[in-house]
Amino acid sequence: QVQLVESGGGLVQAGGSLRLSCAASGLTVSHYAMGWFRQAPGKEREFVARVTWGAATSYYADSVKGRFTISRDNAKNTVYLQMNSLKPEDTAIYYCAADNRPFRSIVTTHSADYANWGQGTQVTVSS
User: Fold this and answer.
1) DSSP type of residue 113
2) Residue 110 CB: number of other CB atoms within 10 A?
3) Running DSSP on this structure, what letter comes out for residue 74?
């Protein structure tokens, strides 16, 4: 059974940093592109970042580019999202998910192309 468990969320002041973790079981993260999404109250879930399965190339939403970094530790079967220079508009529940197809190279930012969602971790940025 595949399980993704996010952690590391919390309350932080604007300009601060947080590091989110996504620990996977029942799935080998090195075989899948992994993504982070977020959902703010009253808004749709939106793509944040993706790391490819092979060369570990990363892709980011324009809103977080230059501030967030996605990475993967294959030995720990864990994906991370380092978030710096946080803004109040970054406040949301953050979810990690695995691409629903292993070894897919095409970059997709659509949530429908991801499966095995975690339960999410709340990030709140105060102004």
Assistant:
1) G
2) 8
3) T
Question: For the residues 34-52, what does the mean pLDDT come to?
Answer: 96
| Exposed/middle/buried for residue 61 (C-beta within 10 Å: 0-12, 13-18, 19+) | middle
* Pair 23, 4: CB distance under 8 Å: yes
Tokens at 31, concatenated: 């075989």
Contacts of 17 (CB under 8 A, 6+ apart): 82, 83, 84, 85, 86
- Per-residue pLDDT averaged across 41-63, rounded? 92
In this predicted structure, the answer to whether residue 54 has a pLDDT above a threshold of 80 is no
Please enumerate, as own/partner, the contacts of 25-30 that have beta carbons within 8 Å and a separation of 24 or more.
25/1, 25/77, 26/1, 26/2, 27/2, 27/77, 27/98, 27/116, 28/77, 29/72, 29/74, 29/77, 29/78, 29/79, 29/98, 30/72, 30/74
Q: Reduced to 3 states, what is the DSSP secondary structure of residue 121?
A: strand
Looking at residue 55, what is its pLDDT?
64
CA atoms of 53 and 105, how far apart (whole Å): 8
Q: For position 33, what pLDDT does the model report?
A: 94
